[in-house]
Queue: 3 jobs
Job 1
Amino acid sequence: MTTSPVRLGGLELAPMDRLELVDDPEFPGISIVGLGMVGAVARRHGRVSVELVPTFRGCTALRFIEADIRRAFEPSDDVRVTWSDEPWSTDRVRPSTRARLAEEYGVIIREPDGSLLCPVCGSTSAVRDTSDSGPTRCRSVAWCDDCRNVIEVLR
Ligand SMILES: [Zn+2]
């Protein structure tokens, strides 16, 4: 599992812009910034400090993400990645990222009222949870009674 082979030789990019280029290994094309995984980033005296909010503690993708972050910076940059204790929640996901997750991956996030919007047919009332266990610990599985599709729910 490797993602984001980003090396932008010599380009002067703000740290946050570089992090925009780092994808979540589970969702190629979806940046960790859009998923709300970046808690803080700072460049001081040649050192780049990145604090990440992991979507799920113990997620096996974390070490890949850390490696991808280092690759997004220059080899000469002193990049320090730390993991925050702050709990990640789906509220941290950008609206535009939310839309892309639904469109490109069929993965949805529970609406504030607890309902689930089917990414296939748009039904708001026919989606029901079927299983707490999904393909990864960050996702559960739901079912749409209207279009009869399996839907993944990011949690
Ligand atoms: Zn549906």
Job 2
Amino acid sequence: MILEVIGAAGLAAAGITAYGVRGRSAQVFGPSVWKGPASRRAIALTFDDGPSESTPDLLSLLSDYGVRATFFQCGHHVRRLPRIAVRCAADGHEIGNHTDTHPALYLRSAQFIYDQLERAQRAVIETCGVTPSLVRPTFGARWFGMRPAQKRLNLLGVMWTTIARDWCLSGDEIVQRMGTAAHPGAILCFHDGRELTHRPNIDSTLQALRVLLPKWAAEGYEFVTVSEMLARPSVKP
Ligand SMILES: [Zn+2]
């Protein structure tokens, strides 16, 4: 479909291709969700780019509020910090796939994309003993190889309803940005790592969540994993 559009008209095609790559609701390059049903007063917090040395502080904070979330982990970090990856799963959080070494996937070959997802998948299975059923594309950008790779690995794409931009905002700015982002079915994207950086500083994320978690709890929100929100079984080996 997208090829016909590209052939048909230049500028319009460029716009639609950009939508297909980055659009949160696009299905062009594979099945993908960006929100859950609004029928339940629940939100799904997601954390990308970990595990990192900073993840245990986040896990403690989530535990304080009884929050279960979804961690989209990179295979590279899972192999680097296996005990932290295991603790994420043991604490009841869902583990999703966020590629092996966090490259951008657009313009890449289908084999490159498959290898990135398969290596990350293997790292999580071998380390945590669970098989991810969800994938979040790096930089929220997808490409042609995503669909066959997702099919072979049984992965559903997950974008987000709102992204915190917590890699560049202060704690106060994150609170301001995300303070109104919760609504039934929202999938909210934060980070417990910074791509391949070791010992990343996620203080602004933690500072914001210390304000946002009690606020959302007081507003009556349940915190669920993405698979729970979608009423989708998270596949076990
Ligand atoms: Zn990322």
Job 3
Amino acid sequence: MTSWLLAFNDLHYTYPGGRGPVLRGVTFGIPEGKKCVLLGRNGCGKSTLFLHGNGIIQPQTGQVSWRGKPFVYKRSALQEMTQRVGLVFQDPEHQLIASTVSEDISYGLCNRNLPPEVIRAKVENILDVFGMRELADVPIHHLSLGQKRRLALAGVMVLEPQLLLLDEPTAYLDRYQTKNLLRELDQIHRSGTTVLMATHDMDIAFEWAEWICVMDAGKLVFAGEPQEALSKREMLESLHLGMPLIAEVWEALPESLKQEVGGGIPRSVDELKKRLSGQLVSSR
Ligand SMILES: Nc1ncnc2c1ncn2[C@@H]1O[C@H](COP(=O)(O)OP(=O)(O)OP(=O)(O)O)[C@@H](O)[C@H]1O
Ligand SMILES: [Mg+2]
């Protein structure tokens, strides 16, 4: 049986003064140790769900649990949850509060009453890990949007969460920074952190994820392996998410070549290249 690190059970939520329910009975679990992606069209409730993931929002009905234990909405228990679950907001302006880069990174550590020398060492280390040492004393309002997003991630990772929730982390990043970020996320995952990323980028989702969840209108409509998700073209298209580009390329190949290469839709250009070159070698 899969062990869920964080699980949402039949969550319902309507914002005060909102136009109607945003979460309408969403139920799903985040499998421990996996790189997970959450897909869903604009406004389906992804960011609202994330805010439930570390207790910032309390569900009106339903339950959120950590390793099978329901959240307790009391100050000390919630503080513990924010240590376990790191949330990187969709908009970094909502996350960054101090005046300089290093002050912002140290903010969460200061709240934990750690000795100053421990805080200093952790901040120095994370500045190196994220390649931000030269920006240490730069005022936050001098950073580009991409740099602010990077800083928001650094400020969460310095707290060493067990689960990282990333809300559309590649939005506004250029190709180079997107690749860098994905490499960093792989490193974060290898070091033992479970990651759940909300994204609209189907190419990134299918190349990167080991587990795919799809939401629509405040409910979960799919959770499973990427290969299984790729076989649900009709569902992905009906939700206006579409298919990753690689699936369209695969679709365009002659049937005879697909049969020779074998397997289902490849998840990345690299996988397609490998399979094609394997096929070419074996047919020589
Ligand atoms: N603070 C708020 N008050 C009232 N309604 C809100 C608030 N925040 C979000 N909503 C509404 O809740 C719904 C879901 O929003 P949410 O941001 O969770 O969606 P999302 O799936 O993250 O969308 P996107 O892909 O655009 O980021 C939307 O209809 C939105 O207008
Ligand atoms: Mg959102």
